[in-house]
Amino acid sequence: MAASGLGSARAAQRFGVLGLCGRRSPRDLCVRERRLPGPAVSGRSVAVASGLDASGSEQYCLELLRKRDYEGYLCSLLLPAESRSSALALRAFNVELAQVKDSVSEKAIGLMRMQFWKKTVEDIYLDNPPHQPVAIELWKAVKRHNLTKRWFMKIIDEREKNLDDKVYRNIQELENYAENTQSALLYLTLETLGIKDLHADHAASHIGKAQGIVTCLRATPYHGSRRKVFLPMDICMLHGVSQEDVLRKSQDKKVRDVIYDIASQAHLHLKHARSFHKSVPARAFPAFLQTVSLEDYLKKIQQVDFDIFHPSLQRRNALLPLSLYIQSWRKRY
Question: Which pTM value belongs to this model?
Fold first, then answer.
């Protein structure tokens, strides 16, 4: 087992450049020191009919992101002007769906809200969106960029299934969830940039999966406070970690082994995404700026020796805006 060869190495670790060893699966890990490697909108004026002018609905989305998805807010601001408001609408849509689960006390209410968004998407494509600010901005984005309806429905369907609070039996189930939510959101963002490219889609798939895995790790302390654990069961079982170990915020090496394995998978997806760098159109790079915050988190969790509950992991990186700007200027992801 990988865990057995890592105990003594931890004390001697020095964290520098990421260098993840090759990893085939959660059950087949290498034994080594831990180093994570636009146009005018046609149709009727919904905004006027609802009493919301264009700036009002866009400002609503902007404020929603600033409060609920700060990293996504910063990334969206660095997109080209012709895509920016559409990307803000997409991320606001994602936030609206993501917060359903935590804002309802009964599953039935959550299902009703998901049904509202399903009907909203249907109505948007019929050129008849409801008088709701996010819906209005989504409608405008669809009209501007001819966005693919299927990706919206995938996101809603996956979020709806997740209302059940089912644990992930393995890392693949977590990755599938991320593919149908985070990756689908990136596919739509690429469409706002006018990108239809197989290599860009492959990169987006891996970045979305990395985002989903990192989000699961970052949310672990919050979920633990609500007596819930969503870490993949197969990796927990591999290291003999129970849900109670996580809920007790255990500092045992075996718990850190679990976090290391999961973080390693996120890093591997980032590595795969960057392997397409030379083949991905440069115009697609702004859609992938979230890799900056993902790598920042993976570096920080490595520096605290994979202690998922370390207070430093919950602090906002004050230098993130600068890091994002530099990455955008360098035209890299």
Answer: 0.83
